[in-house]
Amino acid sequence: MTAPFGARLAGAVTARGPLCVGIDPHAALLARWGLPDGPEGLARFTDAVVDALAGTVAVLKPQLAFYERHGSRGLAALEDGVARARAAGALVLLDAKRGDIGSTMDAYADVLRPGHPMAADALTVSPYLGPGALQPAVDTARRHGGGLFVLARTSNPDAGTLQHARVGERSVAQLVVDTVRGWNAEDGAGPLGSFGVVVGATLAELDVDLSGLGGPVLAPGLGAQGGSAADLRRLFDPATAVVPTVSRDVLAAGPDPAALRAAAARWADRLAG
Ligand SMILES: O=C(O)c1cc(=O)[nH]c(=O)n1[C@@H]1O[C@H](COP(=O)(O)O)[C@@H](O)[C@H]1O
């Protein structure tokens, strides 16, 4: 039986530090690496990132959209990369931002099942259909020791338009955070809960109460979107289990594996500083 995702993440962060590196093979990055914008290019890009970083960073976060662009052969490259990354000791957070009615959500969450061709440790999900619609994913995560990261206060400039909307006394973002807090509380004690939220490192101020969340906070928006390690220190209490995630600002250093490792190490140093 796989240990719960939260416990596995806590162990990985202790051993390797909190940095998550996103695998986002943009067409422009592939070109910069001298690779074709097709399935072979994706496979070579993914293998290079995995080979350089899966032995040292806690979490790798492949972005599904870049693989879907190239159909079944793109997805095959991702399946291979996910398996290789996990075999090398990294946790894999599949960034798919899934969200749908219960029966469909159940199918989306199947990617957390061991034996799935793209079996991942955790999945990003969108709460737009209502937090209750995510329940099948919560159930699947619990059954298989998987994790979920729910979009709460995202890093894009327009995010507040919906996420600041009020539901009674609370913002939509706060309702999402409170829902995730409830899932972790149901699971009880542990070093860290398996259910996290996404809160961008780009926020002008932290406008959600994360106290007692009991799970991790994925913080994107570093580097290319303007967020910095200082922003993380400004926004988050030291008690918050922040998992900072960087894609382009590390990937642009490739394809040389030593340069990729050095770029990730620079972020790790800034985060530790
Ligand atoms: O869930 C995410 O990972 C995510 C949430 C969010 O609020 N903002 C955000 O940028 N992301 C993802 O994080 C990555 C950011 O990439 P860079 O801006 O290149 O570091 C992309 O894959 C985005 O899809």
Automatic annotation (TrEMBL):
Residues 18-263 form the Orotidine 5'-phosphate decarboxylase domain. It catalyses: orotidine 5'-phosphate + H(+) = UMP + CO2. Keywords: Decarboxylase, Lyase, Pyrimidine biosynthesis. InterPro entries: Aldolase_TIM (IPR013785), OMPdecase_AS (IPR018089), OMPdecase_type-2 (IPR011995), OMPdeCOase_dom (IPR001754), RibuloseP-bd_barrel (IPR011060). The active site is at 97 (proton donor). The keyword Lyase applies. GO terms for molecular function: orotidine-5'-phosphate decarboxylase activity. SMART domains: OMPdecase. Its EC number is 4.1.1.23. It is an enzyme of class 4 (lyase). Pathway: Pyrimidine metabolism; UMP biosynthesis via de novo pathway; UMP from orotate: step 2/2. Belongs to the OMP decarboxylase family. Type 2 subfamily. This is Orotidine 5'-phosphate decarboxylase. It comes from Geodermatophilus pulveris.
